[in-house]
C-alpha cells in the first residue's frame, strides 16, 4: 500500500473527484479527514469507510474553518501528510454579465480556502515532509468562454502553488496540481446549463471521452501523495485524456 501511515485532508471529499480520492487513499492505507458542506453525502461516505475516514461538515469559505479543519485532522489522526484542495463552486456567465457575486463564490470556495489551508497546514506538512495537491482546470489554461470567475481563481491557485512549491521545497514539501476532466455532479450541472458544450467536453480530447473520477483521476492523486512523486514540485499534471498538452 502506497500511502500506509499517511494522514490526508480532502476538501470537497463527499462527492465527485474528491470522493474518489478519499476512497483511493483509504484503499492505499491512508487515514482521511473528509471536509464538505454536503452532510448527507459525507456521512454516507464515512459509514462506507469506517474509522479510517472522518467526515467534518465545514464551509471552506469561512476563514476560521481552516484552523478548525487542520486541528481536526491532527487531533484525530496524530499527524498530517497530505492536503488535497479539491472543492470549488462556481457559476458561469458571458464575460460582460459576470458579477462580483460570481467572483466571490469562485474565489471564496476555490481560492481563499486553498491559501488559508496551505498556510495553516504548513508546519504539520514540514514535520511530515508532506504534499499539497491543488486543482487546476482546462477552463483556466484555455480561457474557456463563460468561465471568467472560475478561470481566474484556478489560475490564481496555480500561481500560489508555484510560489509555495519554491519556498517549501527545502522543507521537504512538494506542491503539485491536477487539471482533471471527469464526469461528476459539477460537470453534469454545467452540461445542463450549457448543453451546447457537452460535445466539446466529451469528444474534445484525443481519447474522445470524459474521464472517470475513480479510474482516471484518483490514481494521479495517489501518485502525487506517494513517495513516487517526491522529486516533483510546482507541476500541473493533465489528467484530461490529452485535451491540453502543456509544454
Ligand atoms: N470534473 C471535471 O471535469 C473538472 C474539470 C476541471 C477542474 N475540475 C476541478 O476538480 C475539482 C473537483 O471537481 P468535481 O467535478 O468533483 O466537483 P463537484 O462540484 O462535483 O464537487 C465539489 C465538492 O465540493 C463541495 N463544496 C463546494 N463548496 C464547498 C464549500 N464552500 N465548503 C466545503 N465543501 C464545498 C461540494 O459539496 C462537492 O462535494 C474542483 O476543483 C474542480 O474545479 C474538475
Describe the structure.
The protein is an alpha/beta fold. The chain has one domain: 3-Layer(aba) Sandwich (Rossmann fold). The protein is 48% helix and 15% strand. The chain has 10 helices and 7 strands. The chain has helices spanning 16-27, 39-49, 64-77, 100-110, 112-128, 138-142, 148-167, 185-193, 198-203, 213-225, and strands at 7-11, 31-36, 53-57, 82-85, 131-135, 174-180, 236-239. The protein has a 7-stranded parallel β-sheet with strand order 3-2-1-4-5-6-7, sandwiched between helices. Helix 1 (16-27) links the parallel strand 1 and strand 2. Nicotinamide-adenine-dinucleotide (NAD) binds at residues 12, 14-18, 35-38, 59-61, 86-89, 109, 135, 137-138, 180-182, 184-187. Nicotinamide-adenine-dinucleotide is lined by residues 12, 14-18, 35-38, 59-61, 86-89, 109, 135, 137-138, 180-182, 184-187.
